[in-house]
Amino acid sequence: MKKRSILFVLALSAGMFVTSCSSDDNEGETIVPIQGKYNLSQRGTIVDGKEVLVDAPENAAGCNRDYLDLRLSNAAVIGDYSGSDCALTETTGTYVRSHNDLTITVGNLSSTSDIMNLTNKELKIKDKTTGIITVYTR
Question: Which CATH number fits domain 27-137: 2.30.29.30, 2.30.30.240, 3.40.50.450, 2.40.128.280?
Fold first, then answer.
């Protein structure tokens, strides 16, 4: 009987330890990794407090969608399909994520965006300078 009581107390203590060790200090930051290849889906802005998004005009008709590939090495590859032959042009830069900010640098040009949504299927960012919202899907 004494053995059962000790085992019960140990099991109860372990259960309390496991449930009390969650990390709530991410300040609203998502825990989904940002690395991955995202297809350009929509662009827009906020009008009268509401998001207005349209299909991204940069995507050439009849071609694959343009993309953003964020790699583990912090390389950012921007793929652009254009022309009647849907020729692919890739531009490489770097990216840095700091909490819910994403900064992409290509050459000496940088843009910083708020990460509005990051899930396994979507990356939605809002440019801090222009306010333009860009939605990418996986």
Answer: 2.40.128.280
Question: Radius of gyration over alpha carbons of the chain, in Å?
Answer: 22
Phi, psi of 5 (to 5 degrees): -65, -45
Angle among Cα 103, 105, 107 to the nearest 5 degrees reads: 170
Phi and psi at 128, nearest 5°, equal -70, -25
Confidence at residue 31, expressed as pLDDT on a 0 to 100 scale: 72
Between CA 89 and CA 23 the distance in angstroms is 42
Average pLDDT, the chain: 84
Q: Where are the beta strands (DSSP E) in 29-121?
A: 36-47, 50-55, 67-70, 75-82, 87-98, 101-106, 109-118
The tokens for 66 are: 């343009």
For residues 70 and 63, the answer to whether their CB atoms sit within 8 Å is no
> Do 101 and 115 touch, CB atoms closer than 8 A?
yes
Question: Can you say whether the dihedral through the CA atoms of 134, 113, 101, 92 is positive or negative?
Answer: positive
